[in-house]
Design goal:
The complex is a heterotrimer of chains A (about 290), B (about 160) and C (about 800). Chain B is α+β, with helices and mostly antiparallel strands. Chain B is built from five helices and five strands. In chain C, a hairpin with a 6-residue loop joins strand 28 and strand 29. The N and C termini of chain C lie far apart (about 70 Å). Classes of the chains: A alpha+beta (about 290), B alpha+beta (about 160), C alpha+beta (about 800).
């Protein structure tokens, strides 16, 4: 289990990086922390022509908390998300989710940008982005663009990012930041989620005005569940259970060796209920059930 | 080939390596530091854990070139002047190892724990070290050893 | 054979002597060994479960950068691994070193690339193209045994390596007249020991002398030498096998593997050392699997729950080949023998089928069939208790063997030498606080939570030797272990043993034994093992035998050396040899403590002043002894386990909350090491019970080939343990020792299944937990059944 041969380059500036990307073609990959790429290389599930290391490119590891939004550079590690005070204050859901990513040694090296670009449908960051109305910022020699999380994740390991683009940062919106819940079913500490659910709400006068329910591990990409969101907004006394049931009944999950589709439905119910209760309890809204 | 210059256990090393060389293989094959063990090469078992700039990483999920210009510490750095490190001593006294294969990676994870969260209790120890798999001990004596090691680290900290 | 003074080390919790080097990173494992000029081997493996090998194209690989040679099956066609049982009707399999015309499981080696290093070897391996024509695969017991399924090996009648059955004379009458019966079918998932060190070997061949030297990750160096001798067609004198530090074995490293033979052959062809380090993905498909048993058991009992007869049908999925040195009969045979367990059962009828399938071959794993046997008999006891409305503890107490029953001849013919079953069960209920657990369970139920308590009792045959193995039909009878003790002129000792220490602490415990017998300090003794040049022969470390048999052999050899010390000291002190006493650091005259010689001085004189020796005494202090614990039927350890679990009612995820063990392995040389072995075994048993399973699809494709898919317990999955000991000596062994390395792993499946069933026992439906591992999805299925419906919330 050794990586296949590749050409390696470590650009020193962003323009240099973008130039290399534009010339390297479809078979090049970008190396951030490597915690998704290295297993793929060691297992020889990936055989890139070029590995382009972001480590020397300055400015990709900033955390910026202006205006209640949080902008996080692609090279920020999971561990920093877990410990950074700006994240804790402005995007506590992200701080919580970071703790579920792998083990400490993985979190020390793995990055949010790498995880999002990798687009594992069971990963935490994509659903955090979806729940917080986030976006992914991309750069290429052609310029900059920002893609809403909704539009970014297309399929397993497949995103809206074009081969000549690099993820430079993620941004988490502020509207949904303060009423949130996160719950994940892991077989063991550090495992990928079988199912993970992020819930975030906009509260007005103690009522849920708007809700986001984003679920990982159930499809070829992270999904939002409008039916569950509607149940939270409807705001009955059993809103969390209603949302959980709506999610369970509206999603047809995948099957794999970690769980059949019908088992995943049960997990969707359990984790949606828990995440929703956490989100609602944070504001004292309809939290009787559970 | 890629140029590489990395400080390992306080000594500067330099080499030309194939860029695909894993840090674990650089340590073991190029430098002869075979104390770092390789158990899975996909990031799950933790046997290959080393510190890079003081933070634990999987050396099997790190290219040697990614350590260029950085400082790497392996199990061989722990003992000083022939004396076991307090963490090693605690593992010895508490029977915290059997076959010894997972031990070096585990010790490096404990070293990080002692530096960042020396006050944690048994449940937190278990949670924190869940990325280091041991097949021999059933973990009980490891948790004893880590508890004892954190105590001795705390005592040293209090005394200074 | 008592020592002259009370033991200083036997029974003491001394720290392990190997830990210093292991903690410093100075251990020396096979992967750390790279002789000058070493080449790296990489195997190309079948991705089909069953196929005709129409051709293998190695052209591109052969000319790839850094490649020295690419071997295919024909290159090694003169060599094979064949392990034949003497049981009537046994059907032989020949395992090729590299596949010839057929592949019989995913992971079987098709070609071997030898190159400058692992990176280029792997590059070249990707260039090998195998033309495989798929055949229908027999992936499970029923498919393989179906009359329509073609035999997997040429000349076979069907896909059973062997079928065996045995019935006691009184079985039919006892079973037909019994007022009650309960039947269950039990399934154990396929899994294995999965040590953190994968397999590895380094083969060297010296063309001048024709000698092979193989460093390999094995528990059984002498048996590997024997197996290599057969497979290579080379006498043992030309083969040296060395097992240095080994990173966990658990049985998986107690077989000869084709890769070891291939590396020897390649080293001879290329006149270069050849090294292979298994990668983790290979480990999951090519290192031996274990544990996959299906048992149908019926208990016949009277109104008060006394068992009158037991009936069992055992099937074990042995995979594609019979393995050396155990054959493909080991698990089925062991399960037949031990299934009646710790109970006073007189009448027994059992059949067993060792099934050949298109899966990775099946070898030893800690406990060998005993976890499945314990699961069956203990699940049966729980069902009998429920059938009669009797408490689970009470039903066991009514049937457990008691003091007056020993020696007990089980209905399968095993001789249980001694035990403390009732006492251990009593003790574990107190240690684990059954009363408190039941109180917490009641509170939890009030709060709508699912908490259960489980227990199991078992007896474990350990340290069985000639008498036992000669009945098992194996080609080599594992009858004894060997130890050599040498005192040198400095008064320090080297103890060499045929066992191996890969975590069990024998480097320490054997030193404890020798130090006591020779009156030396522990620091004056070095224990060595793992090199076939050190002692003549022996079997190795498996079957919970090493402390008993090597301990006994060390005792015998050390006593022989001590006799020479007494003899020479007596001569020099002008006293009678029988009056000499070996004490700490000296040999003195009994009753005259001022008359003595220091041991160090005595050693120097014996080697360096031969003129002062009495007539007939040779100037050396060395003895080699073997030990076969007569009568060879084994020393029986027993234990009782008690645990509690909590189940998440929404997800089925089960957590072990508490786990208590009372174990009786006789006198303990080092209780701390014993406890470490118990804890490690229990944790592996928790893996068996909750996590670990090699899954296959219908085409025979393995689905669990990384640590993301094959789940071993991590630190947060295992609770703190409570442990206590009873110490009933064996009448059969030196010092009364009993083995215990495997015991911890035997009961957890039964205990946790019992606890999960108990957690659901207050619900409307009755469920029988009958399948391991208890994955969350399976547990949800039981919850649904217990709730009387097929749907959840």
């Amino acid at each position: 289990m050794k990586p296949p041969r590749f050409a390696y380059c470590a650009p020193q500036t962003l323009p240099e990086l973008l130039e290399i990307l534009s010339e390297a073609g479809d078979e090049a990959v970008v190396l951030a922390g490597g915690q998704s790429l290295l297993p793929m290389l060691n297992l020889r599930l990936a055989a890139p022509s070029h590995v382009i290391d972001l480590d020397r490119v300055p400015g990709l590891d900033r955390i910026d908390g202006a205006n209640g939004c949080v902008e996080v550079g692609a090279m920020v590690t999971h561990r920093r998300m877990e410990t950074d005070p700006v994240v804790a204050a402005s995007a506590p859901l992200a701080r919580c989710a970071a703790g579920f990513v792998g083990y400490r040694a993985i979190r020390n090296r793995g990055t949010v940008g790498g995880s999002v670009a990798h687009a594992d449908p069971a990963a935490e960051w994509p659903i955090v982005l979806l729940a917080l109305d986030g976006a992914v910022d991309l750069a290429s020699v052609r310029g900059w663009r920002s893609v809403a999380a909704e539009d970014f994740f297309e399929s397993v390991y497949t995103t809206a990012k074009r081969p000549d683009e690099v993820v430079t940062s993620l941004s988490f919106g502020s509207r949904f930041a303060h009423s949130w819940g996160f719950s994940e079913f892991q077989r063991r500490v550090g495992d990928f989620a079988t199912v993970a659910v992020a819930v975030a709400c906009v509260m007005e006068s103690g009522e849920v005005a708007e809700a986001r329910v984003a679920i990982a591990g159930v499809a070829d990409r992270p999904v939002r569940c409008p039916e569950a969101e509607a149940a939270l907004v409807a705001g009955s006394r059993s809103a969390a259970s209603d949302a959980a049931a709506a999610a369970r009944d509206s999603i047809e999950p995948i099957s794999d060796i970690h769980g059949s589709s019908s088992f995943r439905k049960r997990l969707i119910y359990a984790e949606t209920q828990r995440a929703a209760l956490q989100a609602l309890r944070a504001n004292g809204a309809g939290a009787d059930d559970g | 080939m890629a140029e590489l210059s990395v400080s390992v256990n306080g000594e500067l090393t330099a080499a030309q390596v194939d860029p695909r060389t894993l840090l674990s293989d650089y340590l073991r094959d190029h430098l002869g530091l075979t104390g770092t063990h390789v158990g899975c090469e996909h990031g799950y078992c933790g046997a290959c854990t080393v510190l890079v700039d003081g933070a634990s990483v999987r050396s099997c999920l790190t290219l040697a070139v990614q350590a260029d210009g950085r400082s790497v510490d392996t199990v061989e750095s722990l003992a000083s002047n022939g004396e076991l490190h307090p963490i090693q001593q605690a593992f010895k006294e508490c029977h915290g190892l059997q076959c010894g294969f997972c031990t070096p990676g585990l010790l490096m994870s404990v070293l990080e724990l002692a530096a960042t969260n020396p006050g944690c209790g048994r449940d937190e120890i278990r949670e924190h070290l869940s990325g280091n798999v041991c097949r021999c001990t059933g973990y009980h004596h490891i948790v004893d050893a880590v508890e004892a090691a954190l105590n001795s680290v705390r005592e040293q900290g209090d005394g200074s | 054979m008592a020592a002259d003074q009370a033991p200083r080390y036997f029974g003491a919790r001394v720290a392990r002597r190997q830990d210093d080097r292991l903690l410093r990173g100075d251990g020396r494992y096979v992967a750390d060994i790279s002789p000058a000029g070493v080449l790296a081997a990489k195997f190309v493996r079948s991705d089909e479960a069953h196929a005709v090998v129409a051709g293998i194209d190695i052209e591109a690989a052969s000319v790839a950068e850094g490649v020295k040679e690419v071997f295919v099956g024909e290159d090694f066609a003169d060599n094979e691994i064949r392990c034949v049982s003497s049981y009537a009707g046994f059907q032989e399999s020949a395992q090729p070193i590299l596949a010839l015309d057929r592949v019989r499981h995913v992971g079987e080696a098709l070609a071997m690339v030898v190159a400058d290093n692992e990176y280029v070897a792997e590059d070249a391996a990707e260039l090998v193209v195998a033309d495989l024509e798929p055949l229908p695969a027999a992936v499970d017991i029923d498919t393989a045994l179906d009359v329509g399924c073609a035999p997997l090996h040429p000349g076979w009648r069907d896909n059973a390596f062997v079928r065996r059955r045995a019935t006691t004379y009184g079985f039919n009458e006892a079973s037909s007249s019994a007022p009650h019966r309960v039947s269950i079918e039990l399934h154990n998932g396929r899994h294995s020991g999965v040590p953190i060190e994968t397999r590895a070997c380094v083969a060297e061949h010296d063309p001048g002398t024709g000698r092979f030297r193989l460093h390999t990750t094995t528990q059984i160096p002498h048996l590997i030498r024997a197996g290599l001798s057969w497979a290579l067609g080379v006498p043992e004198s030309l083969i040296q096998v060395i097992a240095p530090d080994v990173g966990g074995g658990f049985g998986i490293k107690a077989q000869l593997y084709p890769e070891e033979v291939a590396c020897c052959l390649a080293a001879r062809r290329l006149s270069r050392p050849v090294k292979w380090v298994e990668d983790r993905r290979e480990h999951f498909v090519a290192a031996h699997h274990s544990r996959e048993h299906r048992h149908s058991v019926t208990g016949y009992f009277d109104d008060d729950g006394t068992i009158l007869a037991l009936e069992a049908d055992i099937a074990v999925d042995m995979g594609a080949y019979s393995v050396f040195p155990w054959t493909a009969t080991m698990d089925g045979g062991m399960a037949m023998g031990i299934l009646p367990g710790p109970y006073r059962i007189h009448e027994y009828s059992v059949s067993s089928t060792s099934v050949c399938t298109n899966k990775t071959p099946y070898g030893a794993y800690r406990g060998v069939a005993r976890p499945a046997a314990c699961f069956s008999i203990e699940r049966l006891m729980d069902q009998i208790a429920r059938h009669l409305g009797v408490d689970r503890v009470e039903i066991r107490n009514r049937n457990l063997l008691a003091d007056g029953d020993y020696p007990w001849r089980s209905p399968s013919g095993l001789i249980y030498d001694s035990g403390s079953l009732v006492e251990s069960l009593d003790a574990v209920l107190a240690l684990g606080d059954l009363e408190g657990l039941l109180k917490r369970q009641a509170d939890a139920r009030t709060a709508g939570r699912l908490v259960g308590v489980g227990l199991a009792v078992f007896t474990e045959q350990t340290a069985h030797t000639t008498q036992e193995f000669k009945q098992r039909g194996v080609p080599i009878v594992f009858g004894y272990e060997t130890a050599k003790v040498r005192l040198d002129a400095s008064g320090t000792a080297v103890v060499s043993a045929s066992i191996h220490d890969h975590g069990q602490g024998l480097e320490t415990t054997l030193a404890q034994v020798a130090a006591d017998r020779l009156g030396l300090d522990l620091e004056q003794i070095r224990v060595e093992y793992g090199d076939t040049e050190q002692v003549a022969y022996g079997a190795g470390t498996f079957a919970s035998r090493s402390a008993v048999l090597a301990g006994g052999a060390v005792t015998k050899a050390a006593d022989a050396v001590a006799d020479t010390l007494r003899q020479v000291a007596a001569h020099m002190l002008e006293a009678a040899p029988e009056d000499m006493v070996v004490e700490t650091g000296r040999v003195s005259v009994a009753g005259s403590p001022s008359q003595f010689l220091e041991t160090t001085e005595l050693c120097r004189l014996i080697y360096q002043r031969p003129e002062r020796l009495p007539e007939g005494v040779e100037p050396h202090l060395e003895a080699s002894r073997t030990y076969d614990a007569h009568p060879g039927t084994g020393a029986y350890t027993n234990a009782a386990h008690l645990a509690s679990v909590e189940i998440d009612p929404l997800t089925g995820k089960t957590r072990v909350l508490s786990y208590a063990v009372v174990e009786d392995c006789g006198p303990m040389i080092n209780p701390t090491i014993v406890e470490g072995q118990i804890f490690g075994g229990v944790a592996q048993g928790v893996g068996s019970a909750l996590f670990e399973e090699f899954l296959y699809d219908e085409a025979g494709q393995p689905l669990s080939t990384t640590f993301a898919d094959y789940l071993v317990p991590v630190m947060s999955d295992i609770p703190d343990f409570q442990v206590a000991h009873l110490q009933t000596p064996s009448p059969h062994t030196i010092g009364g020792l009993k083995g215990m390395g495997e015991g911890g792993a035997i009961a957890p499946g039964a205990v946790i299944a019992s606890a999960v069933e108990d957690a659901l026992s207050h619900l409307v439906g009755t469920v029988t937990v009958d399948r391991l591992p208890l994955t969350p999805e399976r547990v949800l299925g039981y919850i649904d059944a217990a709730n009387g419906n097929g749907t959840g919330p």
